[in-house]
Amino acid sequence: MRSFGSLAEFAAAKGGHLGHSAWREVTQEQVGMFADATDDHQWIHVDPERAAESPFGGTIAHGYLTLSLVTAFMAEIFSIEGLTMAVNVGLNKVRFHAPVRVGCRVRGGAELIDLKNSPAGKLSTVRVTVEAEGQKRAACVAETLSLYVA
C-alpha cells in the first residue's frame, strides 16, 4: 500500500505507477452471487458443465464483475491522508481484453493519469489494469474518475 500524506503529495505522483493490489481468486460462488445481484444468469457464467464445452473450457466471470473489483484494488494500492470524502464519479473508458476464468487469480495495477481542480475538490483519473494470472493480455483496463475532498 502506498500512502500519500496529502492531495499535493498525490498530485506529485501524476504520470507514475502507484503499485499493485494483492492477487485474489475469482470463485464460482462469487460469480453466482454477482449473477443473482445483476440478474445476468448467462450460462457461460453459471453453468460449469455447459461452459466446459465452450471455447473457454469453463465458466468465466462477468466483465462487470471484473470491473467492480477495481474499487477494491484501488483501496489496496493507495491511500490519501486528510480526506473528508472520496467519491466515485465515473469512468472515461473501459475495455475487456480477455476473459477471467473462474478459479484464476486477478490483481489490479494503478497509474495516476491526471489530477485537476474541480469546484468540489480534486478530480483524479486513474488507469487501473486488471491482470489475470498466467494471461498475456490484461483482462480489463479502466480509467476511473474519483473526486477527492480534503
What does this molecule look like?
The protein has 150 residues and is α+β, with helices and mostly antiparallel strands. It has one domain: Thiol Ester Dehydrase, Chain A. The chain is built from five helices and eight strands. Strands 2, 3, 5, 6, 7 and 8 form a six-stranded antiparallel β-sheet that branches. It has a two-stranded parallel sheet with strand order 1-4. It is elongated and about 50 Å long. Pfam families: MaoC_dehydratas. This is MaoC family dehydratase.
Question: Which descriptors apply to this entry?
Answer:
single chain, 6-stranded antiparallel β-sheet, two-stranded parallel sheet, alpha+beta, Thiol Ester Dehydrase, Chain A, 8 strands
Structural class label: alpha+beta
Please give the CATH architecture.
Roll
User: How many strands in all?
Assistant: 8
Kindly report how far apart the N and C termini lie: 20 Å
N-to-C series of helices and strands: EHEEHHHHEEEEE
**Within the CATH hierarchy, at the fold level, what is the topology?**
Thiol Ester Dehydrase, Chain A
Mean pLDDT: 97
Total helical elements = 5
Rg measurement, Å: 17 Å
* Main pleated-sheet profile: 6 strands, antiparallel
Find the CATH superfamily. Answer: Hotdog Thioesterase
**CATH classification, class level:** Alpha Beta
InterPro entries: HotDog_dom_sf, MaoC-like_dom, NodN-like
Protein name: MaoC family dehydratase
Pfam families: MaoC_dehydratas
Family: Belongs to the enoyl-CoA hydratase/isomerase family.
